[in-house]
Amino acid sequence: MHATSPALRSAAAWLLGLTVVIAAAILTIFLVNTNIYGPQKQVKEYLQALRDGDGGKALGLLRAGVPDGANPALLDGKGLKATMDDIEDVNIGDPKSSDEEHVTVPVEYTVDGNTLTTSYKLEKVDTVWLFFDEWAFVPSVLPTISASVVNGNHATINSEKVGLPDGEATFAVFYPGEYTASYKTKYFEAKPTEVTVSTRQDSSSSQLALAAKPTEKLVNDVSTRIRQYLNKCATQDVFYPDGCPFSHPGTPFLAPGAEINWKIAEYPKIKIDAFNDMWVLKPLTGTAVVTSKKIDTFSGATSPLRAEHDFRFTARLDVNSGSVSVNPVVD
Question: Is residue 7 part of a domain?
């Protein structure tokens, strides 16, 4: 056998080296294309913009429009940052091609222990330096959520105070995100309610309905005013107190010097409900006791007079941000 010539060995080594260089170049192009120019990078930057509360950057990356008439209050700042507070264990999956120009990137994460997936559609928009694909989100319209509160005109969503004209409003939102609404004033409050937006909704919006109810402070303040009104009625030394819901029918003859004394034996229980965009008091019921001393006109004998009278009346309630007024209505 003939020994391999030095020239042949040199050529073989050169070809091997060239093959290694080409393979390394191909691998480098693949890694750069995937990690720097790949669609996953766009998704990663978008999610980071949400965590940073940078709504301008997020909106630009997503190439999304704000629906007509939707309030943009939750698209930036602390209201936006809070949407990602409970989104954990985020995993950006591998792109899935639908054709050469389009891919779908799934993002899996957990919210309050529940595993959810949001998918983003991206399209190839350019090629850089002949080898590297440039990707961007397919243009879309942001989803919305609707917030409402009974007999209120504002709420707090993700620590952001927002206006609710006529008690409701629609807000444009990013996704994924968790949105928590609450409502509390001096006299009314509602239990917090939350919704997780995980997809781009085309025709319906998630609901944050706040069922406002009177606070204990309001009930106590109204009760105090009703008691004050009834106690004032009870100071009148007559059988028919003026402007009051109770009276003692008939006109018994009183013993000389006898006084007429009223006492409220049972005060009304306060119940406040929403009705026709107002807060109204349910009918008020109680019991009053009248005492005095009467005389028999035939015998001249005197005897105690005592009678219990159940009463019922209504009252108009007017509540603003800092005060409450109660106006009794007596037939």
Answer: no
